[in-house]
UniProtKB/TrEMBL annotation:
The lineage of its organism: Bacteria, Bacillati, Bacillota, Bacilli, Lactobacillales. It comes from Limosilactobacillus rudii. Residues 6-77 form the Cytochrome b5 heme-binding domain. InterPro entries: Cyt_B5-like_heme/steroid-bd (IPR001199), Cyt_B5-like_heme/steroid_sf (IPR036400). SMART domains: Cyt-b5 (SM01117). This is Cytochrome B5.
Amino acid sequence: MAEKTFTTTELAKFDGRNGHPAYVAVKGIVYDVSNLPVWKGGKHHGNLAGHDLTSVMSRSIHMETVLKDIPVVGKLVD
């Protein structure tokens, strides 16, 4: 199966609202945070699903630990 790719415009549709899944991108990888209680409603600590959070996550000292258990759904291509 081919890997799913997302543009920033496509990623924005996955905002976790109105029944949509909640996806976020970090370092070009798109993660599905839909089933994480901390992302309820597509928001977490002021961050919004449907966005590239690379700059935010790069400041996190536990980024690798947090991301390792979150399902990957594809790659961000732009």
